[in-house]
Amino acid sequence: MSERTIQVGLAGFGMSGQVFHAPFISADPRFTLKKVYERTTDKAKQAYPDVETARTFEELLTEDIDLVVVSTPNQYHVPMAAQAMRAGKNVIVEKPAAASSREAEELCRLAKEHGVLFSVYQNRRLDGDYLTVKKLIESGRLGEVVDYECHFDRFVRGQSAKQWKREGGKGINVLYDLGIHLVDQAYALFGMPDEVYADMRKQRPESSGIDNFEVSLYYPDKKVILSAGELVAMPGPRFMVHGRKGSFVKYGQDPQERSLIGGMRPGGSDWGADEENYYGILAVAAEDGISQETIVTETGNYGRYYDNFYHALRSGGELLVKPEEAVDVLRIVEAAQESQDQKQRIRLKSVIRKEALKV
């Protein structure tokens, strides 16, 4: 590929396309947001006057497009990604990559077969709070981690504004929406668990599927608890991590989504900076008791996802989110669903050989 800017075709301009993709693509001079697929509206053109509006997905597969970003409803992720790969396009797919690990594995195979780059948009690996937890764990200040807990709670009223979410279906519920972020974060830190146990509920009559879950991942030396609910008016800690040397507790969520929804655009020295009152507390054991220290939150920036993809595409660098990782994450999610059905822990089968899936 020449050194011209990477020409991007964005499929879908709902919340994900408007909030999580277009702002970062357009802010990076190495990318050009050339076409946006919208069946009937012209929202992209209004926000980005230079963009071309495509009325069919096939218009994104023309010779002038280098990268297709699939940000459509979940049920279209696999067929659109596969079609783009067969057309020789590099592909980024909004999470979840697929409704099943088998479908995600097929996308990995197609990417390898057609010699294209493929990644899943797990932007929450670039949340400031998660980066803070990751840094503390890697620094050894917590010691060996024995318990890790992460919550993603909200208070939701009424039905979803999105018809496809109201209708529901396979791979469309809070576990595949928020939960897949939490599973991916834990997987990126600790790898595949040995066992999975899940408790899922539907608490709101307006929900099309489960809207509350607690998923436990069991490792030989630690336990991970991941949970989300839609009837939580007063959220507790976002992260609680306990190690043999101490504990870290963090409230609040990364500010980027709130900023983007509020109309702010990436850039500026304070982008992704956390509010001081949400800084976490590190408590460590000392000779005279427990000492506490306020930990400044790392600065998050979802734009680093596209920066990483650029370097992987141009110079063959390592992807931040590798395609085979989407397969593993979905295997964990499937084990959680199986656990819910059987009301017992599920032991994960032997891990898929990653070498066979690498692009």
Q: What does it look like?
A:
The chain is of the alpha/beta class and 359 residues long. It folds into 2 domains: 6-122 and 304-317, Rossmann fold (3-Layer(aba) Sandwich), CATH 3.40.50; 124-301, Dihydrodipicolinate Reductase, domain 2. 32% of the residues lie in helices and 24% in strands. The chain has helices at residues 15-27, 43-47, 77-86, 101-114, 128-139, 163-167, 174-190, 256-261, 303-315, 323-342, and strands at 6-11, 31-37, 52-54, 67-70, 90-94, 118-121, 145-153, 195-201, 212-218, 223-229, 239-243, 246-250, 280-286, 289-295, 346-347. The protein has a 9-stranded mixed sheet. Strands 3-2-1-4-5-6 form a 6-stranded parallel sheet, sandwiched between helices. A hairpin with a 2-residue loop joins strand 11 (239-243) and strand 12 (246-250).
Notable features of this structure?
359 residues; alpha/beta; Rossmann fold; Dihydrodipicolinate Reductase, domain 2; nine-stranded mixed beta sheet; 15 strands; globular; disordered C terminus
Structure, briefly:
With 359 residues, the chain is an alpha/beta fold. The protein is 32% helix and 24% strand. It folds into 2 domains: 6-122 and 304-317, Rossmann fold (3-Layer(aba) Sandwich); 124-301, Dihydrodipicolinate Reductase, domain 2 (2-Layer Sandwich), CATH 3.30.360.10.
Distance between the termini: 17 Å
The CATH topology of the largest domain is given as Dihydrodipicolinate Reductase, domain 2
Quote the beta fraction.
15-25%
Biggest sheet: strand arrangement: 14-13-12-11-7-10-9-8-15
* CATH class membership of the largest domain: Alpha Beta
| CATH architectural group of the largest domain | 2-Layer Sandwich
Class from secondary-structure proportions: alpha/beta
Helix/strand order: EHEHEEHEHEHEHHEEEEEHEEHHE
Largest sheet: number of strands, sense, barrel closure = 9 strands, mixed
The count of helical stretches stands at 10
Compute the average pLDDT. 94
Helix content: 25-40%
* Overall geometry: globular
